[in-house]
Amino acid sequence: MEILDLENFLPYRLYRLADAVSREFAGIYKDSHGLTRPEWRTLSGLGQHGTMTATALGEQSAMHKTKVSRAVAELERRRWLVRTPDEKDRRVEHLTLTKAGLAAYREMVPLAKAFERELLARLSAGERGAIVCGVAALEAALGEG
Q1: Which of 55, 118, 127, 145 sits CB 3.0–4.6 Å from 123 for a disulfide?
Q2: Taking the alpha carbons of 93, 98, 102, 107 in that order, is the dihedral positive or negative?
Q3: How many Cβ atoms from other residues are within 10 Å of residue 27's Cβ?
Q4: pLDDT-flagged residues of the chain (< 70)
Q5: Distance of CA 37 to CAs 13, 34, 42, 77, 84, Å?
Q6: Per DSSP, what are the bridge partners of residue 81?
Q7: Alpha-carbon distance 128 to 134, whole Å?
Q8: Dihedral sign (CA 27, 120, 101, 56)
Q9: Whole-prediction pTM value?
Q10: What are phi and psi of 11, to 5 degrees?
Q11: Can you give 41-54 as a three-state secondary structure string?
Q12: Contact, 34 vs 49, CB < 8 A?
């Protein structure tokens, strides 16, 4: 019987790496603003793109609709976002950050950029170039880029 060596199986390694990086970064926005991963992804999606639907947020952040819904409810409870019903389809809501939500997002952007710089600083210049190119190539090959 053929055995799959998970430690050398690229999809498994990518998943573990993404999870490790995400967990390390989560400490930053949890400590600074008390956010969960789904709340951070929701806040950052709206901060980058402006008004979005929950469905669009889920697609953009690769989150299940339940996680998006809970994150939206918590950010709304904090008064960091508002929901506006769609004029043509009342089942659809448009989500937008409030001034307070936008202020929190703006506070976190430099923290996120510093985290990325520090993460990449752990690699040589050649390794940084290779990982950026490799990730972009995989995204393009999978239609995710």
Answers
A1: 127
A2: negative
A3: 10
A4: 145
A5: 21, 10, 9, 17, 24
A6: 97
A7: 10
A8: negative
A9: 0.87
A10: -55, -40
A11: HHHHHHHHHCCEEH
A12: no
- Burial of 76 (C-beta count, 10 Å sphere; 0-12/13-18/19+): middle
Type of residue at 99:
K
**The pLDDT value given to residue 145:** 63
Residue type, 12: Y
CB under 8 Å to 13, separation ≥6 — which residues? Answer: 7
Q: Convert 89-116 to b/e letters by CB count within 10 Å (16 or more is b).
A: eeeebbbebeeebbebbeebeeeeeebe
Distance separating alpha carbons of residues 41 and 123, to the nearest angstrom: 26
Q: Is 94 helix (H, G, I), strand (E, B) or coil?
A: strand
Task: Give the residue from 56, 65, 63, 66 showing the smallest Cα distance to 95.
Answer: 56
Contacts of 119 (CB under 8 A, 6+ apart): 21, 24
Q: DSSP state, 93?
A: E
Q: Tens digit of pLDDT for each residue in 56-88?
A: 999 998 899 999 999 999 999 999 999 999 888
Amino acid identity of residue 103, one-letter, is A
